[in-house]
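Contributing new records

If you add data, match the layout below exactly. Sequence lines come first and carry their own label; structure lines follow with theirs. Keep one chain per record. Anything else will be rejected by the validation script.
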Amino acid sequence: MIAGTSLRWATAAVATVAVLTAGCSSGSSDGSASSGGTVTAWWADPQNPLEPANTNEVSGGAVLNMIFTGLVQYDPKTSEPSNANAESITSDDQQNWTVKLKPGWKFSDGTTVTAKSYVDAWNYGALSTNKQLNSFFFSYIQGYDQVSPASGEPTTQTMSGLKVVDTNTFTVALTQKFSTWPATLGYSAYFPLPASFFSDHAAYLNKPIGNGPYKISSWAKSQQMELRPFSGYSGPDKPKNGGIDLKVYTDPSAAYADLQAGNLDIDNNLSNSALKTAESDLNGRFLNTPAGIIQTLSFPLYQPQWSTPGAQMVRQGISMAIDRPTIAKVVFSNTTTPATDWTSPVLGEAGGYKEGLCGELCTYNPAKAKQLIEEGGGIPGGKLTISYNADGPHKEWVDAVCNSINNALNNTKLCVGNPVGTFADFRNQIAAKTLTGPFRTGWQMDYPLIQNFLQPVYTTGGSSNNSGYKNAQFDSLVNQANANPDKSAAVGQFQDAEKLLVSDVPVIPLWYQNGTVGWSSDVDNVTLNPFSVPVYTQITKK
């Protein structure tokens, strides 16, 4: 979270996500769409079809958050949660929850959002045969183990912990106490789905339908998506513009050139070279602000050569061979900060960020790095290849990391970068577990809890556990923390789990990334939320 703010942890007998006065209310009171001009913005092809439970990367997530609004939403300035489609989310024991919806909300196809819209969507997302990447987010609901067993086929199609009570009410029974569960419900995996998603799935995939401030007008895949204000939207954050046209770019330099030429209004994928001059190039139309993002380097622990005791020492040595402060200054022009833990400073100390938790593992020490790598048996295969998606601004820093490692080990040819086509291509290789060396990873928080930085990424079977890391003690500590109603004690348990990453090193923390965005002279009111995504609804066209 920004400026030391933190999520509420429920401590009373009845835990409820508070209904806050939204600070981003706009548009007419009758829900009519804005008549402002259309804004053009940078975009990259999403990895997967735009299904809420099957999208866990930023490009697809950006669209889902424009066309859907969930039970909870996060303040665009502070990340504080407040009820959106939910009227209330309550529990007497922090394990059995009752969700009541605000009546009258609509999907953009005109159908009504009901309790069944959520229950059906969550059951679909959890069912293993649907192969949804975010299935793991439903694992705390009773019956998940039957719809998504560790092995074999599901024995039922729906989770026993979900019950529709009436049109606007449903109940959720969890497998354990989870005091902050309501605060997680703004994440896209928990969005509702219209009946047409199930009756004509192909049509939905071609033109997704949601209940958010925008609706998709057209989508030419790998080229452009046109979104227009949804006049039937019931939420407070109604668009102040006439729509967003997302333009797909595979080269960051091409997008920046279009921005400077006035052919693009919003660019939040600035290359490292552009970051050095954007402030002057754009006459101050540039924002550089802290965000809930950490960039990391993951190892394929599912590959035998990287999962031995010796390889563990090698991984430690590689981390110590990286000169983070110099790379942050020279490559990123101080738009990043060297990482010293696996979370983000925006959480604040009370929220779980602990400066220095990583210790010497994240401290540049070329002599110790060389010693550890040699004692561990050397780099597997004698060559270190760092893979990354070529359509993002990663080549310069990957080259810098390799140069740092090569210098520490006195071998100029040891480490090299391996560019992989598009982001979608790269993510598909990660998902298929075909990479044989370390690869670029990053985590942009889904919701502002330390739990979100740890559980999906490092627990066994986590939805974004790209390294294949497994540690039963880590899993146990996370479960204990989730069940703990005391904020301070829970944070301590999460950090105890995090400390295991120091010795196990499945992933190397590199740096905390600021959110950056540049904009044209044709638009105003450009801001980034704590997730580093433009607040599209607030942007106005001149």
